Amino acid sequence: MKFNEQLRAVLKQKGMTQKLLAEKAGITESAISHYLAGDRFPRSRTIAQIAGALNISVDTLLGTKQDTPEAEIKQAGVLIARNVGNMTQSQKLELIRLLAGKGVADA
User: pLDDT 10s digit of each residue in the chain, 107 long?
Assistant: First the structure.
């Protein structure tokens, strides 16, 4: 899905007007109109502002987020692998508890 289509879909889902989005994102209503029309594409910072105003992730706004459990598990694995060298022993144990189905409070 193209950015303008995704933005339109999220606005509709949230019941938000272009004007309200512009106010919350700190950009002009005219800019929002151009993004929705598809004749302009926002800069990275503006995308982040729009996502924040919509209370969604940039990935969701760009249509790149996959909400399937498999995709989330894969993403979690990537994050863990990337950070395992920086984790403390207690953080690793906490992760093991979570994987075992026991919350942190259960420990």
Answer: 789 999 999 999 999 999 999 999 999 999 999 999 999 999 999 999 999 999 998 888 887 766 667 767 777 887 788 888 999 999 999 989 988 987 655 54
Q: For residue 46, what is the domain's CATH number?
A: 1.10.260.40
User: What domain range includes position 20?
Assistant: 3-62
Q: What is the pTM of this model?
A: 0.61
Burial bucket for residue 95 (CB in 10 Å: 0-12, 13-18, 19+): middle
Based on the fold, state whether residues 87 and 52 are members of the same structural domain: no
C-alpha span between 55 and 88 (Å, rounded): 31
Counting the structural domains of the chain, the total is: 2
Q: Do 73 and 33 fall within a single domain?
A: no
Quick check: 62 and 3 in contact, CB under 8 A? yes
CA distance 31 to 67: 29
- Asked whether residue 16 falls in the same domain as residue 57, the answer is yes
